[in-house]
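quick one before i forget lol
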Amino acid sequence: MHRIGVFVCHCGTNIAATVDVKAVAEAMKQEPGVVFSVDYQYMCSEGGQTMIQDAIKEQKLTGVVVCSCSPRMHEATFRKAASKAGINPYMVEIANIREQCSWIHKDIMTATEKAIILARTAVAKVQLNAPLVAGESPVTKRALVIGGGIAGMQTALDIAEAGFEVDIVEKQPTIGGKMTQIDKTFPTLDCASCILTPKMVDCAQNEKIHIYAYSEVEEVNGFVGNFTAKIRKKARYVDTTKCTGCGVCTEKCPQKEVPNEFNLGLNTRRAIYIPFAQAVPKVATIDADYCTMLKTGKCGVCSKVCTAGAIDYKQQDEIIEEKYGAIVAATGYNPINIEKYDEFAYSQSKDVVTSLELERLMNAAGPSSGTLIRPSYLDKQDDPKAHPKTIVFVQCVGSRSDDGCGKPYCSKICCMYTAKHAMLIREKYPDTDVYVFYIDVRTPGKLFDEFYRRAVEQYGVHYIKGMVGKVAPQPDGTLSVQASDLIANKQLHINADLVVLATAIEPDKTARSVATMLRASMDTNDFFTEAHAKLRPVESPTAGVFLSGVCQGPKDIPETVSQASAAAAKVIGLLAKDKLTGNPCVAQPDELMCNGCSSCEKVCPYGAITYSDKEFRQPDRTVAIRRVASVNEAVCQGCGACTVACPSGAMDLKGFSNKQIMAEVDAICK
């Protein structure tokens, strides 16, 4: 029997206010195997750890139970303390009497009784604990960044600056992400391209960064430090090693009526195209859905005019397989589909636009070369009605919505970019009336509230607290906006030339499939879930997978860049190690009980279980070949799914064996 020491923490008043910790310590002295029991104000402090170490040496303890907070907080702390005192760190158990007890009970007697039960349970488990030794695995010193927006680029640049190889995989023909479509940024009103394009060029010129644009990650296997990824490099039908980006092919292509997705369909492009002037890599791409040559075999104009001989109509997708030590998800976001919000007439009038479409209309590289033109007049810009004189902004379209159509969360950036749009319009077109209908104005960032006040006080933007109920197109081309003014308690009717909808943002559609592939967690809104909201905000619960940018939740550009660099720092810390210590609490099959049914293999989310044929000597001294399970301990994460699925009870988990679990149950039932 083990010699067990029990250490009960007050945690200030977090535990002691609801639990009689001294009573818990006294009760534990009566448990079999417990030779020492004490309470202390802060067990996680240096004094508390010293107390544990001294007790281990003086009392010759072989097992330790710490009654304190969640093991997620300080299990590693107490294990290190025990290890320094000379006992195996996996002979330490944590009884969570804070989150599972004091924080959920108000009555001190009830809470104390439960704390005693939890402590007794941990003691019962320690009695059956055995020393475990963690294995080691090498680290592949290369990182994969999925997504080439500002988050992905900043992460890649920081990793590369530390001297590690990094691959950026971007599904679009160019890196840059949504920021390439933005005109100005808040709260400084500086040019988005002027900030972004140097980053794009830096990525292209950095010898440590390898850009796979127009590509997607198809498969990821392995574990932290040793991932293997398959990347599909989609056919551009252009040899990127030969293309000079001269643009002659894009000028001569006869297929002109392809919707331009970069300008959100506000104008058209050719079937062969370069998304925008500063694209990286600046090479052409043929759109197979519209190219006449690829569809019918008749045309070939781009091939004829290409002096570099870069056009290759027979090009096929290419699969690239690479090994990585760490993976960063930076999949970005998209505005939500607002088809369900037809009360705003988005599908009925071209002059009802989203905020991102307004960005393109105001951008010098946009469909109207930076002149604010009503979309319905883009082909007749000289018409006096082309320039909007009254503009209405509608906030929170799809944000903070519980109607089933939108999103329940605040999209965080809408209030600020609407203030930016309003200021830019009033500055360039002072004769334009701008109305903003809002529920609340949320400006929590540095200089954000001052920025919003400038829009109201300096630029004369009409902010009206109220909701827009309906937008109705009129025969004369204007838009009748019916809204409420909650402060004045009256209904408003405004004839607008342009209505701008501040739509909610949501994770990119690829986020769910990427998370499944990486075995990462997601919330109900398809944002990646961090390992700990406060202490590990850029880490996924899956070891070796990190989060960067809006894939984790709505955020602005500075916040995105901050998180990108934080994710890079975590990756660098991982890649700097030559070896990683694994988790010794892994699955362990009993080959004599295994019946080879494959149930455990099917439920293992990490691919750690395989089957092989082995020879077994029978009682009659004959040899039989049986199919049995085998666990790759370097891949296994100790989730326990296999132990539950195994019908014969052959699969067990080190440190959480069936005997240990049943001992805990028996202790609870005493």
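fyi The chain has 18 helices and 34 strands.
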